[in-house]
Amino acid sequence: MAFFLEVLTGGLLTGVLYSLVALGFVLIFKASGVFNFAQGAMVLFAALFFVGFIDLGVPVVLSAILTIAVMILLAYLIERLVLSHLVNQEAISLFMATIGISYFLDGFGQTIWGSDIRRLDIGLPQDAFVFGASVLGDDIFVNELDVVAAVVAGALVAVLAVFFSKTKIGRALRAVADDHQAAMSVGIPLRSIWMIVWAVAGIVGLVAGIMWGAKLGVQFSLSLVALKALPVLILGGFTSVPGAIVGGLMIGAGEKLAEVYLGPVIGGAIEDWFAYMLAMIFLLFRPQGLFGEKIIERI
Amino acid sequence: MREFNETLLSVENISLSFGAVKALTNISFEIKKGEVLAIIGPNGAGKTSMLNVINGFYHPQEGVITFRGEKRRQMKPYDAARQGIARTFQNVALFKGMSTLDNIMTGRNLKMKSNILSAAFYLGPAKREEIEHRAVVEEIIDFLEIQAIRKTPVGRLPYGLQKRVELGRALAAEPDLLLLDEPMAGMNLEEKQDMSRFILDVNDQFGTTIALIEHDMGVVMDISDRVVVLDYGRKLADGTPDEVKNNQEVIEAYLGVGH
């Protein structure tokens, strides 16, 4: 029992990290109806700048502020140079544009900071600690970093959920996603909305980058973590902030449990494909995801 | 017969083309403050293009638009909205995933002042403002008699109600000039009567100037003070419903020329 709980907790906490990446996708999808292929690259890009500043001897807090400034500038440039030319175009054109942005960011970030693996040590705890003293006589070990990540993710989600559902800007973001022209007709400035949402996605990317970077080191493979966010989005729904969290938890817990309990039966390495399998099954039965907006089409 | 003297908006010699296709040729007319103006014409006459020019979606190659005494070559959608021009669309352009309430709230966008920081954390001022504007939106919902669908995602509503919600969103901006693109298309008789009543009430109670495109001649003749007729991107006639009804050119445009 204690072992099961330990696996479950470990899985859930990894899931939180998936959620952090998925959150960035949801933000941009919600606000522009575009699947942002570059989200993973943005995570890497932010983490590279952050760790780069720290290695130059800049204090941690200042590095974070500088990186946020970089991400806001990046959002401005993306809006200016790419998106503003694509107003009212098909979503697929915008998607293609984000693929381009993704390759550019991967290359540019590494041109500036190099492609070595960088250790990110900002004093986040790395040790496992004993949790809940004992369950049925056994200790449960939990990774402290994962707990920190969970708390951070929880706080981010709470803020974003309120922001989207209760405020003028949140509503404007959703309006832009639904209909560009109608949004413009009620006086929503499309360009600043896009800039805001890309900046917020960049900041969420930074948070994800810091957490993943502390775990794996800052390296190119961070940009591939984004692939794990795909099944999370399919489970949770592309348009739901809470969905990104629940989806992440399900994927995280599911793949760890599957690895430990199914692994010995049907062979190992289940962890690598379990998430995608789960997503596929989900697509069959609930294509809009758990919390996504139901697709309504009038004929 | 109502009299209107003050000009709210005028277009002079507007020409708009897309490549070789001429959508509008040399069009001039005025919209008087307080009136209900109908723009009519056969399909493809350039009616929607004209509305798009007025609210800045299209930028005409030639001509001048004067709004509230200020001359300009073209409008921009954001400026048009800010200066009090609201509109609805031919094919209902609502935010489908959002509720009726939220759709109408977006219409208040320009009236709300809270900035991104206070909004991000839903701080006191942002919250107070939200409640204030919510009250205005509730009044609009009462006015349009759509209380029952307040929380329904608009994508699920029947077409007639969607049109009504769209009108609500435009009204939420408290516009001086309201542009309605076929507000009654696809409606049954009862829905058309309701919509006519709402349009007249808006004009009457709030003094809103209305320019509308409509195909149903019965409705046009009933509710409009003045009618502008377009055909093939040119203006055929401009006058009271009675004058237009008896204009030979208009009759020919609608019924074809007798030989």
**Proportion of residues in extended strands of chain A:** under 5%
- Secondary structure class of chain B reads alpha/beta
Which CATH first-tier class of the largest domain in chain B would you pick?
Alpha Beta
Helix/strand order of chain B = EEEHEEHEHHHHEHEHEEHH
User: Count of helices of chain A?
Assistant: 11
**How many domain regions of chain B?**
2
Strand percentage of chain B lies at: 15-25%
CATH topology of the largest domain in chain B: Rossmann fold
Mean pLDDT of chain A: 83
The largest chain-to-chain contact, stated as pair and per-chain residue counts, equals: A-B, 29 and 40 residues
Assign an overall shape of chain B.
Answer: globular
Q: Structural class from helices and strands of chain A? A: mainly alpha
Low-confidence stretches of chain B: none
Q: What separation lies between the terminal Cα atoms of chain B?
A: 37 Å
Largest sheet of chain A: 2 strands, antiparallel
- In the sheet with the most strands of chain B, the strands line up as 6-7-8-3-9-10
CATH architecture of the largest domain in chain B: 3-Layer(aba) Sandwich
Compute the number of helices of chain B. 10
